[in-house]
Amino acid sequence: MDAQVHPHADAHGAHAHSPHLQHHFDSLEQQFDSGKLGMWLFLATEVLLFAGLFCAYSVYRANHPEIFIYAHQFLDKFWGAVNTGILIASSLTMAWAVRCSQIGKQTGLVICLCLTLLGGVGFLCVKYVEYKAKWEHGLLWASQYNPSHHGEGHDEAAAGDGHEDHSEAPDPSAAHAATPPAEAAAADPAAVTPTVIMTTSAGVVVERSKILPAAMGPMELAPDTTGHDLHGKEPQNVQTFFSIYFMMTGLHGVHVIIGMLAIAWVLIRSLKGHFSPAYFTPVDLVGLYWHLVDLIWIYLFPLLYLIH
Amino acid sequence: MATQTSTIPAGGLAGARDSAEKNYLNESKGILSWLTTLDHKRIGVMYLICILGAFFLGGMSAVLLRTEHLSGTPNLMEADAYNKLFTLHGAVMIFLFIIPGIPAALGNFVLPIMLGAKDVAFPRLNLCSWYLWVIGAVCALLSLLLGGFDTGWTFYTPYSTSSPFQGVIPIVTGAFILGFSSIFTGLNFIVTIHKLRAPGMGWFKMPLFLWGLYSTALIQVLATPVLGITLLLLIVERALGVGIFDPALGGDPVLFQHFFWFYSHPAVYIMIVPAMGVISELISVFSRKHIFSYQFIAYSSIAIAAFGFIVWGHHMFTSGQSELMNTIFSLLTFSVAIPSAIKVFNWTATMYKGSIVFKTPQLYALSFLFLFGIGGLTGLFLATLSTDIHLHDTYFVVAHFHYVMFGGTVIAFLGALHYWWPKMFGKMYNENWGRVACLLIFIGFNMTFFTQFAMGSQGMPRRYFNYTEGYTTYHVVSTIGSYIMAVGFFVIAGYLYYSLIRGRKAPDNPWGGASLEWQTSSPPPVENFKKDPIVGDPYDFSNLKYDPAIGGYVRVDAQGVAS
Amino acid sequence: MSSAHGSHSGHGEQVGHIVGWPILVATWAALMVFTYITVAATYIDLGSLNLWLAMVIATIKAALVVMYFMHLRYDRPINALVFVISLSALALFLVLAMLDTAHYQQVLIPGYAPGMTPR
């Protein structure tokens, strides 16, 4: 480690007048390395920020697999795969943008950044289509979970592509508030309690039963844990899946938006010609961030959409 | 000398003054030059002012709480107000004071100078951390205006999701933002230590305080994001009803505790590890002896940081955690005692046959050894499953973590503040008043919290508004102790303030420290060093000699001639 | 660490590693192929292996992104170490939390939640 500082001292003379060198660094290389290490540490914090959601996912999936097997059919594999493709492509253009900035190709850099930004827009558009479908069908997070249209015998991708049967009457077994009486009674008489009105702070009044689901072991509530009987009854606590789905994709979406803002900033700077082979750190660091967003999606896609 | 520096002219004479007098404090003027500064020293000072404000708020709420407990019946407030007050005390002390205390305020000031660097790696990010702290503090105040919060600083669900007070979301948002402030400080420190060490400053030539800060920064970067997501989930839980932790919506409240303690137990080490680093400096400098077993102390900091991640479940022994995990976590918890004990033994060994100088910082260091010893050893009772069932959520726990957090971290913070005060502001405080205040705090602290061990072991539950007759004596003694402590703090505030306006000018090296910050002037210039510092063993005091003419130490060569 | 940048410190002002475009395109192509495989695999019933297969494929994809798009293969080892440590912390969190929930969930008494039961 001692030896590390000496090249910096040597390089000091050569770069002393570089306009991009901040006063407290000895060399551009030291500055570049510091920026990179800082960014990787930041990415580590991002990984651990998502760790909480992955943990929640794993805990619920391990203990209540039937929820995930039942509920994932309301997500659209097609749109999920499209978004995966979009993000991977935008990762390619981002990596190419870094390459362009490193070899000093201004036009290529601008084009690649624009394409990456376009990828981000495309991703969000698809996300909008998916969220809108969920919203229309009441497939929302726990307190707002109020499925109105889905029923038995639905094929996969029902929620996403808009060919639902709107005339279908609400299915009694699918309506969340109504626990099948036999099953609930078997669990505990206390579980069948009068419906209570819950008011969230958003002012929305939702009607749901005050069952005590946390105390339910998976064995009691899941006669169909094999998961093959998708036409069977809706398992309890399906809303948990949608809570996790919205938190995971929502937080990821926020990261996409932040990434797009960062790319737009780099794009503006590259239009002004700020970057050169000697100084491309912002492009590189924004690129790293964008790839991490892609990375997280690479896991979210199979975990949420591709449950067998 | 005093007139020369105490009567700083309004600006007219600034140009006339000798350039040697220029330092980071008077280099530029005006509040704006501070609020937009990128200088780590000024940011450190701004942090110091802010966290001392938070400490005052938290301390006053503690005194009010103790006053309420003078008798078992309502004295000052009603139960709701009491619940809000102890929550405020906890949240402010943890998130606004202790976590940023040593690293962000004192570490920010000292770390680059100790490394021989001009600044931290990312000065803008550093300023951003400070602003995030301020925004977080504003959120906390906002939550008070909106009706406060009574969840306890741990924000356990379903207390926090069902609490009727509207201050919960703002304080949780504030804690979320403070988390990012902490993350950015840690990130900055890691990169600075990795990349900006002066030529010749190897890893094992760093002062041990930097090892402490480095370990702390690792925890800040790896654990704090989990707090971020936990609090984010809590906010959406309360605002939108996402229900991941709400049993009424199919969620799991015990999972919240896993999330929370995955951060908050390592956070305990964010609080104590930099304090241990401070003690390593103080003990060695004021014993005029090389630190005993440098590498063990350095590695034990890293070890504490690592072990800190695998013991969080000991907060959940009675929360419905499974028996299997209770056993595993109990076992793992004992392992933390090993690196902690390594440090304590090494400090003691450092003092052995040293020429101990009883200056104020050293008095704090000795208090630390005593109080941290008690705090650490009582932790073992709580790590033991069977005794924890009895002691859980009693005043025994309160006393234990105050012995560690206050007797450890705050005492070390005070020691560090006294140690680096001359360097930060270029003024000496009154040594005798310093000793008196240290004694007051030491006595007051033990009166306050040792009684709490006793009443806790007899069953007095924590966070209770009232109590039965039998506990009255303990509570009264505890309250009187807290008053003595408060007096001690006001004495400190008094003489430190006095030193700023009337204090004797500090020499460059008043204590005879060998680390780099003592080679520059007091206070340091903006660029930290006027000439390149000589990097050497930070605990080799053989070439430092006291010079009564300047009241400080000077560097001498082998012949004893000042160099 | 000082040896790691020997390969590119000789280019005057150039810092960092430049990844050639064939490698970028090849990485992209591999990612698309793996995406296809992971979707296709869900139509084959492998029992609980489906999940593991999907995770293995995702990890291969992630490794490709990290090594080539994010240059980690050519970067300083310290950056890789940071990333690996963050993944280890994630794994630790998942494993211990899951180990606990797997055990306490089974000893819960169905329908019994003291304090929550409405009178």
**Helix-strand pattern of chain A:** HHHHHHEEHHH
CATH class of chain A: Mainly Alpha
The number of helices of chain A is 9
Report the CATH architecture of chain B. Up-down Bundle
What CATH first level of chain B would be assigned? Mainly Alpha
What is the general shape of chain A? elongated
Order of strands across the main sheet of chain B: 1-2
Domain module count of chain B = 1
Termini separation of chain A (Å)? 50 Å
**Integer tally of domains of chain A:** 1
- The Rg value of chain B, from CA coordinates, equals 24 Å
User: Which chains have the largest interface?
Assistant: A-C, 75 and 68 residues
Q: Indicate the mean pLDDT of chain B.
A: 92
Evaluate the radius of gyration of chain A.
Answer: 25 Å
Give the percentage of residues in beta strands of chain B: under 5%
How would you describe this protein?
The complex is a heterotrimer of chains A (308), B (563) and C (119). Chain A has 308 residues and is mainly α. Chain A has nine helices and two strands; from the N terminus they run H-H-H-H-H-H-E-E-H-H-H. Chain A has a two-stranded antiparallel ribbon with strand order 1-2. Chain A is elongated and about 70 Å long. Chain B has one domain (39-555): Cytochrome C Oxidase, Chain A. In chain B, the strands form two sheets. Chain B has a two-stranded antiparallel sheet. In chain B, strands 3-4 form a two-stranded antiparallel sheet. In chain B, helix 10 packs antiparallel against helix 12. In chain B, 64% of the residues lie in helices and 2% in strands. Chain B has 17 helices and four strands. The model of chain B is unreliable at 1-19 (pLDDT under 50). The two termini of chain B are 24 Å apart. Chain B is globular and about 75 Å long. Chain C has 119 residues and is mainly α. Chain C has helices at 21-41, 49-69, 77-107. In chain C, 30% of the residues are buried. The model of chain C is unreliable at 1-12 and 114-119 (pLDDT under 50). Chains in contact: A-B, A-C, B-C. Chains A and C meet through helix 1, helix 2, helix 4 and helix 9 of A and helix 1, helix 2 and helix 3 of C.
